[in-house]
Amino acid sequence: MKQKLSLCLLFSLIISVALPARSGHAVKSEFMSYKGLVMAGYQGWFNAPDDGCDRGWNHYNKKGLFEPGCCTVDAWPDMSEYAIQYKTEFVHKDGSPAYVFSSYDKSTTDLHFRWMKEYGIDGVFMQRFVQTIKSKKGTAHSNTILSNALDAAQKYDRAICIMYDLSGMQASDADKVIEDWKHLVDDMSLTSRKNNKYLYHNGKPLVAIWGVGFKGRKYGYPEFDKLIDFFRNDKKYGGCSILLGVPTAWRELGGDTDHDPRLHDVIRRADIVHPWYVGRYDGDSFSRFAPNIRKDLEWCRSNGLDYVPVIWPGFSWHNMKPEAKFNAIPRDNGKFFWRQIAQCVEYGVEMFYYAMFDEIDEGTAIFKITNDPPAGKSTFLDNDGLPSDWYLRLAGYGGRMMRHEVDFSAGIPDCLQ
Questions:
Q1: Which of 14, 159, 374, 398 is 20 to 30 A from 243, comparing alpha carbons?
Q2: What are the CA-CA distances from residue 301 to residues 122, 245, 271, 307 (Å)?
């Protein structure tokens, strides 16, 4: 009897060593390719003191304060549809108190995903900041936001993808990214059949790694290799497609790009190239910049890669950095945003990344912002008198135009007016 048991144990051990670990990912998703989709970046980083997260006025405050004359947001959300609202010290022109939302509330995430469905935005890249997930409190916040987003994605049939932002990362933090991904796969069933809205590309779960190839960072090529090897090859957690977020001048190794030609070798190991364009041009200079998009697209096609540009509505950090040499790129009533959309469609771009869905602290948000922001010591953008959902309309219609569901329009279509 003992001999039989020993033989059984030995046989089990041999089998466990011989067979590869079972993949933690589902074979397929309802979103099997990024192609044809318009996605947005989703920060999900705004907090209020009473939201239960114990992070105070996170991403609203400046030097610990969120009050007139001291804040980091440059646009004010249209609060008319939020179920939970937080009173601030700001007041509107009529003297009424101004309210904001917390990203931590499930009802906030639900509302944002409902807007995505209503306006035709296919989903979002959930920003996963390495600096944030290094702390227990930061991880708890990020996990709550992601959990709420996964529920909302199921409810509204929207795509979800993780984007790891390496900004501020130390070289040793590459292990933290790996640990976090294992946690998401094991404990949150991120890419399981349960969460069948996770975005795939080339038949595999897509993972975005943003911050590759910028000069002056404290991490570099050993960390890039380590992360790519893990997401590509790990028997249980790998088998993924990879999107790399790179500098604007990545192709020519210019500007704020690390000039090391090894960067192109790293990029060729990815599936999608994603250059960062926010702040790199304005309404006057876009026509001169646009050929870079065409050249990027051609380089990617010749190297067997896909390409997704950043399309953004404008920029402002007047309240965050009033001392900056430039602190605003005008939205021009949506014309700036639309010119980028139309140009990308004309070049044959097959997927969009809108920056960002909810970033009111740099004035790039495309979600609903109010024409009646607080008055007083701090100044805020308004929506130029246009409807608060103006950029959601443009974003959704741009996706239809990219998919050739509607005719091409170099100017904002009359049907959106």
A1: 398
A2: 24, 17, 11, 8
Spell out the residues 6+ positions from residue 63 whose beta carbon is closer than 8 angstroms to its own.
70
Judge whether 158 and 123 are in contact, CB under 8 Å. Answer: yes
391, amino acid identity: Y
In DSSP terms, 289 is beta-bridged to none
Cα–Cα distance between 402 and 253 in angstroms, integer? 29
Compute the radius of gyration of the chain from its Cα atoms.
22
CA distance 277 to 254: 14
The C-alpha angle 271, 247, 341, rounded to 5 degrees, equals 75
- Residue found by looking up tokens 């993780």 in the block: 162
> Which pTM was predicted?
0.93
**Per-residue three-class SS string for 96-128:** CEEEECCCCCHHHHHHHHHHHHHHCCCEEEEEE
Work out whether the CA dihedral 377, 383, 386, 392 comes out positive or negative. Answer: negative
Helix ranges, 169-311 (H): 174-187, 221-233, 262-267, 286-289, 291-302
pLDDT digits (tens, 9 = 90+) for 142-197: 999 999 999 999 999 999 999 999 999 999 999 999 999 999 999 999 999 999 99
> Rounded to whole angstroms, how far apart are CA atoms 33 and 351?
10
Structure tokens at 68: 């007139």
Query: Strands, E, within 1-62: which ranges?
Result: 38-42
